[in-house]
């Protein structure tokens, strides 16, 4: 299977896709620091900067899974919550790209404030627009703590499938070996939460807290996804696809 990511960040979705044996074909990310990380870790994946300039028609019929953690600033309780009036409300651009590419699956992620912004009208419009493109959708609220992290970090994960395959089944988070390893790393720091948060960031993020410009790394991690949650979703999609494939490898 193949995968393309929008608002790639430091490549959380792409890392998971790669670990599942799914080929990453392209990444769309505008942040300079994030692009340095992507160039280092995904040198062979095609890079694009601005989603507003992206032409998805060139990938029509070649992408199985599209992922995107579209900007959360218009919806987050930490901001002014302007919703569609915020210039960073880029879901319409993401929808345009999905319509042009027509992938089988979409995995979208955002803060829970996305649900109730503007009395829920924005989310309802987003869900309806995906359904109008021929997708059956199912949103899930899955916290980071569901995969063993010592913090909640509630996020909405929107799963969309072009043929409504497999959405009747609940996605139940479980701990993969990778998640267990991550738990062990976090637990070494979580026992001492009274420590200076920048010291903890230094330990977890491999950054020197005394160097100001290294906050780019911390910012990138803060805007990224929890890969362990995405791993469960990707694995469930693969399991569903395998059940749908006939002996000759075509979808039944």
Main attributes of the structure:
alpha/beta; 7 strands; 252 residues; 9 helices
Describe this structure in words.
The chain is α/β, with parallel strands linked by helices and 252 residues long. The protein is 37% helix and 15% strand. The chain is built from 9 helices and 7 strands, in the order βαβαββαβααββαααα. The chain has helices at 12-19, 32-41, 91-101, 113-116, 121-132, 177-190, 197-205, 215-222, 227-244; strands at 2-6, 23-28, 46-48, 65-68, 105-111, 136-142, 155-161. It has a 7-stranded mixed beta sheet with strand order 3-2-1-4-5-7-6, with helices on both faces. β2, α2 and β3 form a beta-alpha-beta unit. The radius of gyration is 18 Å and the shape is globular. Mean pLDDT is 76; it is low at 166-195.
Can you give me a brief rundown of this structure?
The chain has 252 residues and is of the alpha/beta class.
Number of discrete helical segments: 9
Mean pLDDT: 76
- Describe the main β-sheet briefly: 7 strands, mixed
Strand ordering within the main sheet: 3-2-1-4-5-7-6
Question: What is the number of E strands?
Answer: 7
Spans of at least 5 consecutive residues whose pLDDT stays below 50 are 166-195
Helix content: 25-40%
Instruction: Report the order of strands and helices.
Output: EHEHEEHEHHEEHHHH
What is the terminal-to-terminal distance? 16 Å
Class derived from helix and strand content: alpha/beta
- The 3D shape can be described as globular
């Amino acid at each position: 299977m193949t995968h393309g990511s929008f608002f790639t960040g430091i490549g959380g979705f792409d890392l998971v896709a790669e670990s599942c044996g799914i080929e990453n074909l392209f990444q769309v990310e505008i942040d300079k620091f994030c692009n340095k990380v992507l160039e280092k870790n995904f040198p062979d994946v095609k890079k694009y900067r601005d989603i507003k300039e992206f032409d998805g028609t060139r990938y029509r019929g070649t992408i199985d899974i599209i992922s995107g953690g579209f900007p959360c600033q218009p919806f987050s309780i930490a901001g002014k919550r302007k919703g569609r009036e915020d210039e960073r409300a880029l879901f319409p651009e993401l929808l345009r790209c999905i319509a042009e590419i027509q992938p089988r699956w979409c995995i979208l992620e955002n803060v829970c404030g996305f649900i109730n912004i503007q009395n829920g009208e924005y989310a309802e419009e987003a869900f309806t627009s995906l359904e109008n493109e021929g997708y059956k959708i199912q949103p899930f609220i899955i916290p980071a703590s569901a995969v063993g992290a010592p913090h909640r970090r509630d996020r909405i994960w929107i799963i969309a499938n072009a043929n409504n395959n497999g959405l009747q089944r609940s996605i139940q988070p479980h701990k993969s070996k990778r998640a267990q390893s991550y738990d062990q790393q976090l637990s070494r720091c979580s026992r001492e939460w009274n420590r200076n948060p920048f010291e903890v960031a230094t330990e977890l993020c491999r950054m020197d807290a005394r160097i100001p410009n290294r906050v780019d790394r911390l910012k990138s991690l803060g805007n990224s996804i929890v890969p362990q949650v995405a791993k469960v979703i990707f694995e469930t999609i693969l399991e569903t696809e395998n059940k749908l494939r006939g002996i000759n490898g075509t979808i039944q």
